[in-house]
Amino acid sequence: MIRAISTLAAAVLAVAACSPANTGSAKATSASAATAAAIHPISGLPVIPLTVTHVGQRHVFRVEVARSDAEQERGLMFRTTMGPDEGMIFPMNPPRNASFWMKNTVIPLDIVFIGSDHRILNIAANAVPYSEQPLPSAGPVSGVLELNGGRAAQLGIGPGDRVDW
User: Which class is domain 41-164?
Assistant: First the structure.
């Protein structure tokens, strides 16, 4: 009788281990892992895909999104490295004229100014680290994209190209 109860208890535990509640936990764990992967480990900002289309050719970047004034003020300051297909996007809503500088920014950057039509207006290429010289947009922008210095030229990205995020 004790053996039968032990066998029955083992069977109940086995069924419980395969129940939807446990499957949901596995899904929640997977969802948590996916969410964790979408947050930058240094800045804590969300990371999203951003596509630049140049002469029909698409290039996808993974960019951090700096939405708040504080996030935009900090930007990529003090960062010592960034992957070739990484960057940071600064959404501007409503669109406005923008000017960036390189104060406390260690790595050279391409600063890509994006108009409200999602087309690149102008690029401040290879902005000099630590420079406090203002680098202005050529008009109102709906976003500013920062990439590693020289990356836009390397990929042939320039004014008129489309940027989607």
Answer: mainly beta
